[in-house]
């Protein structure tokens, strides 16, 4: 098993990634760090606490940073509310969390875990890369310690979802993303290239609903909200992209995707802001630190994901 930290901006697909990481016996989820993005930091931390309780898990939740270092506050985009609901989790209501967030800072938690678990640690950021960039600033040594960073973000071979070139997570903090990509960290980029091909439909959510459990119903409800939003906003008429779960899947089984090893950077100029692209200056790097997922075996991934979720949701 691998030790994993999820760095989530808990919206709907983050909620699915959380359930998957809990359900897969090959993953030892040692903590969740909260990020801003699909909603405010306070709300995403609360969502993670509530979902963990719904799923009967005692995993610590830490707060990361509430906004990028290039701004002094963060406001939730209207489109995020339309896609993920105003509470981030499809407007479902869950009991107030009985656990609290940990007193320790989320960035420090990442640093301590890197030292403790060394190459056994995988970090899966499914929101902005602000926390990870801050951790690299505070302790550059961790870039040699962490086993892998498998992140959901970016787009190399397709357009972005915020602009022609920008994907949402990278767009929240392109400066942080660029620091992470150009660091020595071993990175696997699971971007729109592959996540937009990995869809879930109401046929699948109906299977969760049929379980008749509180968790099955809650997960069917929050995912149906997201599927309806995809339909309404004409992002996809058949289903919704399970962006963040695919990053968890690839973290534990890279054979779900084919990769292109490439030294990557993120453009931080206004023009093309947040574009993820090969770094011309380092093109001949012998061992490029980024593996970009450019194709996915979604016919294999979706059933694996479904099996894990059904097993978990059936029991809670
Ligand atoms: C990413 O942006 C967020 O809205 C999703 O949760 C996902 O992590 C997709 O671009
Ligand atoms: Ca996310």
Automatic annotation (TrEMBL):
Keyword Zinc: no
Keyword Hydrolase: yes
CDD domains assigned: nuc_hydro_CaPnhB
InterPro entries in the cross-refs: Inosine/uridine_hydrolase_dom (IPR001910), IUNH (IPR023186), Ribo_hydro-like (IPR036452)
Superkingdom, taxonomy of origin: Bacteria
Domain Inosine/uridine-preferring nucleoside hydrolase: 4-302
Gene3D superfamilies: Ribonucleoside hydrolase-like
Pfam short name (any one): IU_nuc_hydro
UniProt keywords, alphabetically: Glycosidase, Hydrolase
An annotated Gene Ontology molecular function: hydrolase activity
Official protein name in the record: Nucleoside hydrolase
Lineage summary: Bacteria, Bacillati, Bacillota, Bacilli, Lactobacillales
């Amino acid at each position: 098993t691998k030790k994993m930290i999820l760095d989530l901006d808990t919206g709907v697909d983050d909620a699915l990634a959380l359930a998957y990481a809990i359900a897969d016996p090959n993953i030892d989820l040692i903590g969740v760090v909260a990020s801003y993005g699909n909603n405010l930091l306070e709300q995403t931390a609360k969502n993670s606490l509530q979902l963990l309780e719904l799923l009967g898990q005692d995993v610590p939740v830490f707060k990361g940073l509430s906004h990028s270092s290039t701004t002094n506050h963060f406001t939730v985009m209207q489109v995020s509310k339309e896609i993920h609901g105003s509470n981030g989790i499809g407007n479902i209501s869950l009991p107030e969390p009985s656990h609290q967030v940990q007193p320790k800072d989320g960035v420090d938690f990442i640093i301590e875990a890197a030292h403790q678990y060394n190459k056994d640690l995988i970090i899966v950021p499914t929101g902005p890369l602000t926390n990870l960039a801050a951790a690299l600033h505070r302790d550059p040594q961790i870039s040699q310690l962490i086993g892998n960073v498998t992140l959901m973000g970016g787009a190399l071979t397709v357009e972005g979802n915020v602009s022609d070139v920008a994907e949402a997570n990278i767009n929240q903090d392109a400066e942080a993303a660029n620091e992470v990509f150009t660091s020595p960290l071993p990175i696997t980029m699971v971007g729109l290239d592959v996540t937009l091909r990995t869809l879930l439909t109401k046929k699948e959510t109906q299977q969760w609903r049929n379980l008749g459990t509180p968790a099955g119903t809650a997960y069917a409800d929050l995912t149906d909200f997201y599927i309806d939003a995809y339909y309404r906003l004409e992002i996809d008429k058949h289903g919704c992209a399970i962006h963040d779960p695919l990053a968890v899947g690839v973290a534990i089984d890279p054979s779900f995707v084919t990769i292109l090893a490439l030294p990557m950077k993120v453009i931080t100029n206004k023009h093309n802001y947040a574009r993820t692209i090969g770094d011309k200056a380092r093109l001949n790097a012998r061992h490029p630190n980024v593996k970009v997922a450019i194709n996915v075996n979604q016919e294999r991934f979706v059933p694996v994901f479904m099996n894990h979720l059904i097993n978990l949701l059936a029991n809670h």
